[in-house]
Amino acid sequence: MRNLLFVFIVSFILAYQSQYFGHNYELVAGERKRINFYIVIMIILMVLFVGLRTGYNDTAAYIRGFTESEGIRDFLADPDNLHPLHNPFFYGIQALIRSFTGNYHIFFMIWAVIDISLLVYFILTYTDGEDFAIAIFIFFALGTFVFGMAALKQISGMAILTFSIPYLLDKKYGRYILIVLIAGLIHTYAFLFLILPLFRSRPWGFQSLLLIAFTIIVLATFNDTISSLLEYADSIGKTVAEEEVFDGNGMSVFRVAVFAVCPCVILIFRNRLLSKMEPAHELLSNMTIISIMVMLLASQNGANMFGRIATYFEIGNACMIPWVLRNLFNERSYKLTTFLAMAFFFLFFMYDNAGFSTDYSSITILGFFTGLL
Questions:
Q1: CA angle, corner 170, sides to 260 and 135, nearest 5?
Q2: According to DSSP H, which parts of 33-87 are helical?
Q3: In whole angstroms, what is the distance from residue 213 CA to residue 83 CA?
């Protein structure tokens, strides 16, 4: 836990420093500003923590999958590997990297550089200048960073999906669908992002009510509905073990409640907030609503599967929580409520990662470079 806390706190400090002393990447009057080295250092720190791990959650399965992977030529020679529901993009990159090295830390770091850079850039893009550090704090506190070590395919799909949001906001649906399809070739759950154009509207409107109604119906007929979906998935070549869904594990009520904070606050204060929202805020708010609806299913059963589906939409929380606080309160009240919110989310972080130290293991930076020799 100490190492995770160190990465969390230092990343937050670096994000905070970047707001006041850093420089953006954007072009201004044809001249590129200097690189924001605070953000670069933050990303490097996060990448090292992720890439040097030897154990955490499903890490052992990813290590085994990489070390036993065939080379890229053999991978492409087997048509079954290219089935669109068998995550061919992810396993193709794995095979390509395996063709050059057997060091799984390099494999982890390559994906970590891609995933963390894209997620941080997304947060930087869709938060106001003074909200970036708080958004990074929420990103850690809600477990999105840690989730990336538990579910490499899912976080990679999620990172690629961040590319699609600008195209959706600009109504460039062809490019949007293309990126979603690419992400779906990394992990199948990413295809669910195809529903997002239906939520390019005010949050808690008609679409949200339909989603709530659908969620209630599924909850009321959980076993029959989910069994039918599993049978359909199996018929099109995507096998999901029933024990992964009907495992008797429901997501904790506390976790569901924490993720419900942002969408519920937007609902309660919608008269004050909706008028201030731009299209990006509306879309991100709807992502938080979708996320909590899926988590309600996870509270019934299949916490692992539904929890991972919800993660594709949960990054909206990191961007919207600081925005909601800033637009609900005046400057003095904002500082106090932000401090209280950070304390609350930090307590959740400690609760959610209580067993982290017993599960996580890693090598040192020196050990990594020694292994390269």
A1: 35
A2: 37-51, 59-67, 72-77
A3: 34
Q: Which of 149, 53, 60 lies closest to 105 in space, CA to CA?
A: 53
Q: What was the pLDDT predicted at 31?
A: 46
Separation between Cα atoms, residue 36 and residue 344, nearest integer Å: 30
The residue ranges of the chain whose pLDDT is under 50 are 24-32
What is the reported pTM?
0.91
| Pairing assessment for the beta strands 361-362 and 27-28 based on DSSP bridges | unpaired
- Torsion angles phi and psi, residue 362, rounded to 5: -155, 170
Long-range contacts from 19-26, C-beta under 8 angstroms, 24+ separation: 19/129, 19/130, 19/132, 19/133
Whole-number Å distance between alpha carbons of 215 and 123 = 28
Distances (CA, A) of 93 to 71, 89, 248: 10, 6, 34
Considering all CA atoms of the chain, what is the largest pairwise distance in Å, rounded to the nearest integer? 63
Q: For residue range 100-146, what is the model confidence (pLDDT) as tens digits?
A: 999 999 999 999 999 999 999 999 999 876 799 999 999 999 999 99
**Looking at residue 241, what is its pLDDT?**
61
- φ, ψ at 85 (rounded to 5°): -100, 5
- Helix pair 59-67, 104-125: axis angle to 10 deg: 130
Instruction: Report residue 28: phi and psi, to 5°.
Output: -130, 120
Identify the pLDDT of residue 22. Answer: 62
Q: Identify the burial level of 251 via C-beta atoms within 10 angstroms of its C-beta, where 0-12 means exposed, 13-18 middle and 19 or more buried.
A: buried
- Phi, psi at residue 234, to the nearest 5°? -65, -35
Q: Which residues of 134-155 are buried (b: 16+ CB within 10 A; e: fewer)?
A: bbbbbbbbbbbbbbbbbbbbbb
Amino acid (1-letter code) at residue 326: R
The Cβ of residue 287 has, within 10 Å, a number of other Cβ atoms equal to 25
What pLDDT, on the 0 to 100 scale, is given for residue 65? 95
**Residues pairing with 362 in the sheet:** 53
- Amino acid, single-letter form, for residue 200: R
The rounded Cα 41 to chain-centroid distance in angstroms is 21
The answer to whether the beta carbons of residues 89 and 182 sit under 8 Å apart is: yes
Q: Which helix (H) or strand (E) holds 119?
A: helix 104-125
What is the three-class DSSP state of 150?
A: helix
Among the listed residues 86, 87, 94, the one whose alpha carbon sits nearest the alpha carbon of residue 62: 94
